[in-house]
Amino acid sequence: MRVLMFGWEFPPHISGGLGTASFGLTKGMSTLEDLEVIFVVPKAWGDEDQTKVRLIGANKVPVAFKQVHYKGFKRPIEQIEISSKIVPYTDPEQYYQKINSETTGHKLVVQTNNEGTIDFSGRYDTSLMDEIYRYSVVAAVIAQENDFDIIHAHDWLAYPAGIAAMEVSGKPLVIHVHATDFDRSGGNVNPDVYRIEKMGMDAASKIITVSNLTRDIVINKYNIDPEKVETVYNAVEPVKLSGDADVNKGFEDKVVTFLGRITMQKGPEYFIEAANKVLKMMPNVRFVMAGSGDMMERMMRRAAALNITDRFHFTGFLKGKDVFNMLSISDVYIMPSVSEPFGISPLEAMQSNVPVIISKQSGVSEILTHAVKTDFWDIDAMADAIYAILNYPALSKMFIKNGKEEVVRLKWDNSARHVRDIYYRVIWQNKN
Hints:
The protein contains 14 helices and 16 strands. The protein has helices spanning 17-29, 92-99, 128-145, 155-169, 181-185, 191-203, 212-221, 268-281, 296-305, 321-328, 345-351, 379-391, 393-408, 412-431; strands at residues 2-6, 36-41, 54-57, 66-68, 77-82, 106-111, 150-154, 173-177, 206-209, 229-231, 254-259, 285-290, 312-314, 332-335, 356-359, 372-374. The radius of gyration is 23 Å and the shape is globular. It has two domains: 2-61 and 127-235 and 413-431, 3-Layer(aba) Sandwich (Rossmann fold); 254-408, 3-Layer(aba) Sandwich (Rossmann fold).
């Protein structure tokens, strides 16, 4: 079975859990002899690891003067090159009205470079919406020029690409919901994002969610049939540690680490308030907020207002080896997320021999036994948990030992087998 998979990130060019999960799943799939994955990203940099997957960069695919044959259309849509910034649509709705209606012939105007390809930044900037829909234009070309059995689109950024590929090929679409805008926005949903998410869910033959928490949101907030939605838990990529010996930090203070985007979704303000409470009980602790995001300046100001800046450190965004270097000097890892569809970083901490504290409002709390769970808003419980782990070595060792054994069983191979099973069911259902 050949899978045409659309994503937005692929290592080493990732900014968080989405790219990590996409890579982990494709690596797990590479162990299955009956699966072959073609993974498409908006921009390929040239340094991606393609030993486990065939990678296509949308920025490398010529689209000028290509005729795309959408299923059900009387005549093909022709994509032509122009030298201005004119685009063929003003919003997602208008675009889909164009491709989902009967037509007698249509010219889809897109801007290309001298090589006949479309430029992509591959980033999350002000041009994101434009890039999403240019990505779908290229997806249609890729779908027409490649053989595959099923389409898999990761998260809302790739849903339009998945839908375009489906329209061209007639092959079934599976979407993978890593998060919804209800998670990212704290309930203050962006209507354009919601519209894209809803479009993807309605178009898909099957919806994969990363937790039952996310499954419930998809069913209740997007009015999706429960039979259509299935949970496949994420896993963690095994890492080789130098050993279980204590790492020489260069100082004696304990280290408590927050690792993730500094946004409303991740609950950074609760981490700071809990830190303040702990420091009133024991001053020999350093708190680290590793990440970046729109709340970073606000968190710096709050730390200053609490007069804990000498005990509170901001590292900026970390990735790759830097993540595990940070974990190697950590005594506690905490994820106080307000709404976390899953959360891979606690698994990375556990396999790095770090006790973890996670919010009950996270998907990963559904599968972890050997982790301390608190409500994201309960800073007293959070502070008490931090204090207990730091001051009772036997408790810390118990969480380290049992957590390590637990996380070893969470393998991407198992997630891949579950997804493969979904593929076969979807293909069979679409044939019958």
